[in-house]
Specification:
Blueprint (H helix, E strand, L loop, with lengths): L2 H7 L40 H13 L4 E5 L2 H9 L7 E5 L4 H10 L6 E5 L4 H7 L4 E7 L11 H10 L3 E5 L4 H4 L9 E5 L13 E5 L2 H14 L5 H11 L2 H20 L4 E5 L9 H7 L6 E6 L4 H8 L6 E2 L9 E3 L11 H6 L7 E4 L5 H13 L2
Parallel strand pairs: 2-3, 2-4, 4-5, 5-6, 10-11
Antiparallel strand pairs: 1-7, 6-7, 8-9, 9-12, 11-12
Helix pairs in contact: 1-2, 2-9
């Protein structure tokens, strides 16, 4: 089954009682049992719900995985992965990652004795130098948030396999339409479904996908025991959004390319971060493991003045100033004060998150309107 068919049909079956084509919203907390332990596959909706199960099966198929698990948010999914670890374990992570991930690493799980090393994962020698007998996991975002750096998943997987480590890939920015980490050797793929996969800025949810049965059982035990699961209505909304994922991603990529080239040629814009540029340091990796280059673009302003960044993001009309990304509407954000405020300034700036850095989630609107919007905002500086 090809991808465009999977998004519509994978995990989906007509309702056996009514023949409904769309997966129903099973808005129930519990299920009848004819006698103790004798039920129709569901007993309590924290453990399993038919709407959620359809979504989990769909996601597993899209990632070429075997098991999908959904959570109440992307961070809840991250939390479940980290609960695979024990005090004293160590994790090697990218040094350019979502601020919420950094926060849960350093402010929550560090307190339980987990040690994190933040390095550039495109430097294989640094990774190898950090590995010791306590290392249990490599955590990767690719492309990263917000600097759009990439790491070679296949090469990371070889290091992980050689050292008996779990390789986790946050695939939120790319989605399975652009990139399939499990095919490249990753053990777990993590998503904030809130973003591109749901695609309409109307739901918060996270997911994990893997192939290994034992690993899936461990994650499912954590999912059920800790209870950070989504409800059936949210699961339905994500299933509905997925059906146009391939169409939306094509337009996101097309518009993202046009915006990146517009910004690159503007006199008030400094560095533009978009992996489609041949000058991007990871362009070769992007070409190798991605179908296209995505709809995320970050850039600095000439002079690196905070007030200039504030002026720009406060004067756009179609690029809405808001948290999050990946919806059909274009969004702009100021990472230093919004998504990455949890990361200390000195740490942010080491990875390029300067005061004037602006992150764009380029939507599916008419490209001429989007360019005119940015032109107007840049003229205000």
């Amino acid at each position: 089954m090809k991808f465009a068919t999977k998004v519509i049909h994978a995990g989906q079956k007509a309702d056996p009682t009514t023949g409904a084509v769309m997966t129903p919203i099973y808005q129930t907390s519990t299920y009848i049992q004819s006698k103790p332990g004798d039920h129709k596959g569901y007993e309590y909706s924290r453990t399993g719900n038919p709407t959620r199960a359809a979504l989990e099966a769909n996601l597993a198929s899209l990632e070429n995985g075997k098991h999908g698990l959904c959570f109440g948010s992307g961070l809840a999914a991250i939390d479940a992965i980290l609960k695979l670890l024990s005090p004293g374990d160590e994790v090697i992570s990218t040094n350019d990652l979502y601020g919420g991930t950094y926060r849960i690493f350093t402010k929550i799980f560090h307190n339980f004795g987990i040690k994190f090393h933040f390095i550039g994962l495109d430097d294989l020698s640094k990774i190898k130098s950090c590995i010791n007998n306590k290392t249990k996991m490599i955590w990767s975002e690719t492309p990263t948030n917000p600097m759009l750096n990439l790491c070679d998943i296949e090469r990371l997987s070889l290091i992980a396999q050689e050292n008996n480590l779990l390789l986790v890939v946050d695939n939120t920015f790319a989605t399975p339409y652009l990139q399939k980490p499990l095919d490249l050797g990753a053990d777990i793929v993590m998503h904030s479904l809130t973003k591109y996969i749901a695609g309409h800025s109307d739901v918060v949810m996270g997911a994990l996908v893997c192939k290994d049965d034992v690993l899936a059982d461990k994650l499912a035990f954590i999912q059920n025991s800790c209870g950070a699961v989504p409800g059936p209505m949210d699961s339905f909304l994500v299933l509905r959004g997925i059906k146009t994922l391939h169409l939306r991603m094509e337009r996101h990529c097309k518009n993202g390319k046009a915006i990146a080239h517009f910004l690159k040629n503007h006199p008030k814009v400094g560095d533009v971060y978009w992996p489609g540029f041949k000058q991007h340091k990871n362009h070769g990796v992007a070409k190798k493991q991605m179908r296209d280059f995505g709809g995320m673009v970050s850039f600095n302003l000439v002079g690196n003045k905070l007030e200039d960044a504030v002026t720009l993001v406060s004067n756009t009309k179609y690029f809405t100033l808001a948290e999050s990304l990946g919806g059909v509407e274009s969004l702009c954000g100021h990472p230093a004060s919004m998504t990455h405020a949890a990361i200390p300034k000195e740490e942010r700036e080491k990875t390029g998150v300067l005061d004037s850095l602006i992150r764009l989630s380029v939507g599916v609107e008419d490209i001429d309107d989007l360019i005119s919007d940015l032109e107007y905002a840049l003229d205000k500086i």
